[in-house]
Amino acid sequence: MSSVSEIMEHLDYGPSSEDAGAVRDWLSGRAFGHFIGGAWTAPGALFDTRDPFTGQVLAQITQGTADDVAAAVKAARKAAKGWAALPGHARARHLYALARHIQKRERFLSVLEVLDNGKPIREARDIDIPLAARHFYHHAGWAELRDTAFPGHAPLGVVGAIIPWNFPLLMLAWKIAPALAAGNAVVLKPAEYTPLTALAFAEICAEAGLPPGVVNIVTGDGATGAALVGADVDKIAFTGSTEVGRQIAETLAGTGRALTLELGGKSPFVVMPDADLDAAVEGVVDSIWFNQGQVCCAGSRLLVAESIAERFETLLRARMGRLRVGPPLDKSTDIGAIVDPVQKDRILMLCRAGVDAGAEMIGGAPGEGCFIAPGYLRGVTPANPAFGTEIFGPIATLTTFRTADEAVELANNTRYGLAASVWSESAAVATDLAARIRAGVVWINAANLFDAAAPFGGMRESGFGREGGFAGMQDYLTVSLRKTEKISTPAAPVVVPGAGQGAASIDRTAKLYIGGAQKRPDSGQMYAVPGGLAPLAGRKDVRNAVEAAAKTAPKWAAMGGHARAQVLYFLAENMAQRRDALAARTSGAEADVAIARVFHYAAWADKYDGRNVQTRPGHLVNVIPEPFGVMGVICPNTAPLAGLVSLVLPAIAMGNAVVAVAAQDDPMALFDLAQIMDTSDLPGGAVNILTGPREDLAVALAAHDEVAALWYHGAADGLRSAERAACGNLKPVWPVPALRWSDPDTQGEPFLRRAVQIKTVWLPYGTLPAGAGGAAY
Fold first, then answer.
1. Could you give the CA distance from residue 53 to residue 118 in angstroms, rounded to a whole number?
2. pTM of structure
C-alpha cells in the first residue's frame, strides 16, 4: 500500500471497485427462459452471456425460436386491447411504478449493466440507469395527457422492439416507455451479448404489477430478431446497424406496418478557430472515449480548423494520455472493455485499413482481453475508408479544414446523418453550422446530451422516425383518417401510334411540367386519356425533374414560411380566377376543394412551428421541423386535381420541392394547373409534374438518391416495389391512405408532419446551477 507522501507525489487514483456481490448472487447458476404473458418460460436451447472484462460466463440465456416469438406476440395481442382501454391516468400510474422500481434498484442495475456490457461503472451509474428511469417518468406524463395532447390518435397495437448492446437498459426504456404510454403492448428482443438488464426489467414489470402480456421479452440472436420482424406486429422499432436496418425495411416493404429505424452514424465533431479548445478536448473524451466509442452518435470524425489543429492535437494527446483503461467496475476507470472479442477484432481491422490508406495512428493500442486504448487516426482524407466507416470503438479520425463552408462540406460528406457536435465561442457561427449540417441532433459546445423530452433520431442512412419527446410519441400512435376509396392499380397506358415529337394531334397544353417549364417527354411518346393525349414520362424525365427540384429546394426552403405563404396565397387567387377552366376538366366541387386546400396550406406555411423542450437545466433545446429537400409524391388516380393539391401543397408549404406523378388515367386538369403555376411566382422546380406509368415512375423516384422522402398513394403491389426501391438510401415512404379527398380530415397536421424531419439542437446558455452537470439529466 502506498504511503500518503507517495500518493501526493504521483496523485494516482487507488482502486475503488463497486461491489458486485448482490448481482453475482442473483446470477448464480441462472438459466433464463423468456418472459411471456407475465410469466417465465422454461429454459430452452441455451447460450452463454459473458463478462467482457474477465471472459467468465455470467448466465445462460435461451435462444428464442419463431414459436417463442409467436407466443410472445399472441400474449401481447391479447393484452393490448385491455391496456389501450385503460384510462390515461391508470397507464400513467403503471409507468410511474416502473420508474420508481428502476430507481430503487439503480445500483443493482448499474453493476449488472457493467458486468454484461463492459462499460465503466461511472457511465452506467451516472448516465444510463438514471436516464432510463427518467424516460419512464417522462412518458408516464404522456400517458396521462395522451388524449389531450394527441386528439384523433390511437395506439398502433403490438410493437416489436429490437435493441443493440451498447446501451441495453437505456435503449429498452427508449422503446418500451413511449410504446406503453401510447397504449401499445410490446415484444422486446435484447441484444444477444447483453440481455441481462432486460431480464431484470422483466422481474421489475412483475413486481410493479404491470398487466400480464403488456411487456414480453424474448432473448436470442439475429434469427430471433428476424422472426420478430416477420411476426404479426403493427410496428417494428429497431436500433442497430444500417445494414440490418435496410434488411428490415426490405422485409416490411408493402406490409403497411409502421417502422422506426435508428441506425449507424459517423458523426462530425467540428472545432472552429474560435473554439474553447480545452472544452472541445473534453467534449472528445465525453463523446467517444468514455463510452469506448460504442455509441452510434459518437463524434468520431474530428474536423478541426487548420489554424488551431496543432494546439488542439497537443491538448488532445495530453488528455488522452491521462485516461485510465481498466476494470469496468472500478470507479476510477475511464475506459472499460469492448463488448466482445469479435467487436475488438473489427475495430482493429478498420484501424489497419485506415493506416494502409495513409493515416497515422496515434494511441489506440490493443490490450490484453477486450481492451483497446483510446486513440485517433490523423491525416484522414475523405478518400480514406476510415473517414466514412463507423468504427464503433475508442478511435476517432482527424481531418483539418480552412473555411466554414469546407467544414460543412466535410461534415455532410457521409451517407449518415445521425448527430453532430459544433464548437465555437460565436453563437452566430455555431448556429449557422448547426442549421447547415444534415443531422437529426446537433450539440453546440457539448456532446452526447440526451433527455426523454428531446427527440433523437437520424436523417439519410442513419434512419427515420424519432425516439423521445412529442415527436417520439407520435411515432407510436396512428392518426384516424377515414378510408373511403378502394385503390386499384391502373392498367399500363396505351401509347398512341404516331404521337411522337411533332405529331399534329398533340394537345399543346398536355406537356410535362419540369423546372417551371412545360416540356415534351424525352421519348416524345403520348398516351390516350379522356379529353386528349398525355405525355408518357420515362426515367430520363424523372432524372430531369429531380435535378430541377434539387436545384430549387434550398432556395425555396430559405425563403422562410412567410414568403412561401405569400406565393401560395397568390397561387390560390390565380386558381380562383381560373376556377371555371379547372372545373371544366374535373368538376366544380373538385375545383373548389383544390382552391380551398391551397389557401389552407398557405395559412400553415409560417405556422407549423418547432418547440423548445424542457430537459436538463442550462440548455435551450430546440426541436425544429426541417424540410426533406426533394420529395416524390405519387398522387391518387382518382380526384386528379384535389388529390394532387392535397399532397403537393403540404410538402411545398414546409419548404420541400416536389416531383409529383399525376393521376395516370385522367391528368388533363394538371396541365391547366401547370399554366397557373407559371404565372404565380412559384419558383421553377418547386413543383414538377410527370404523367405516365405511375408504378414505373414511383420505383424510379424511390430509387433516386436525391429524393429524400416519398409519399405513395396506390395499391399494395406498387407500394411494395416502391418501398423496396427506397431501401437503397433508406428514405421514408408514407403509404398515403385511401381517402375521400374532399373531406376536411384530408388536410392539416397529419400531412404536414410527414413533410418534415425533426432536428434537435442543444444550445447551452447562462451559468449552470450547482449539481446540473453530467450527461444524463
1. 6
2. 0.92
